[in-house]
Amino acid sequence: MDMRPTTVFLFAIVGACNLTNPFPDFRARALEETNNQEALWKAKNVHSYDFDFQRDCSGCSATAIQQVNIHVRDDVITRVVSITGADVAPQAGVSWPTVDSLFLWSRQFLDNTSFTVELDFDSTYHFPNFIRGQAPGFAAEHHTAGLVEQTSTAPIRVANGDEMPVTGYLIGEPFSKSNRVVWRNR
Question: How far apart are CA 159 and CA 172, in angstroms?
Fold first, then answer.
């Protein structure tokens, strides 16, 4: 499945100048648009959903860059499934996003002025479906697609049909330049 966005909004320090503001603040505009899109997402009041996710980043493990389907129930990740249908167990050093953390990750890139940032938002649910942060010697991309709303009581089933207990997937930083990762549990 191709998870590349069809439209990408590039936020960089380029563009037309005007006499009153010779250097438009594209980063501030991008933060404002990210906040606007997040308000639209929150207005939909979606807390249980599944979506496809893939990242590509410098120095990330094979587990971290595989294409997965993430199951979120009541804003908590309850299951991560690989493209082959196998369950991906929680692993130290590998964080998976919820839609809320995709907004957080977008702001982290935009807040760091050493990064060139590209963002694209889903036109239906308004979540970031493409995030790229690039700095000298480092790049990370996050592709998100196929969000499907679920009920909070939708059971999570494993391949044999049994219900799967909720495990401790961690919602963390979009990347780590070292082995130290600061985790944020929801």
Answer: 27
Please indicate, yes or no, if residue 132 is contained in any of the structural domains.
yes
DSSP string, the chain: -----S--EEE-S-S---SS-SS--HHHHHHHHHHHHHHHHHHTT--SEEEEEEEEETT--HHHHS-EEEEEETTEEEEEEETTS-B----TT-----HHHHHHHHHHHHH-TTSEEEEEE-TTT--EEEEEEEETTEEEEEEEEEEEE--TTPPPB-TTSPBPPP----B--S--SSS----B--
Number of domains in the chain: 1
Render pLDDT for 15-50 as a digit per residue (tens, 0 to 9).
344 455 555 688 899 999 999 999 999 999 999 999
Rounded to two decimals, the pTM is 0.73
Query: Does some domain include residue 117?
Result: yes
Residues 148-185: tens digit of each pLDDT: 999 877 665 554 455 555 455 545 545 433 333 332 33
The dihedral built from the CA positions of residue 161, 170, 94 and 118, taken in this order, carries a sign that is positive
Q: Are 149 and 49 in contact (CB under 8 A)?
A: yes
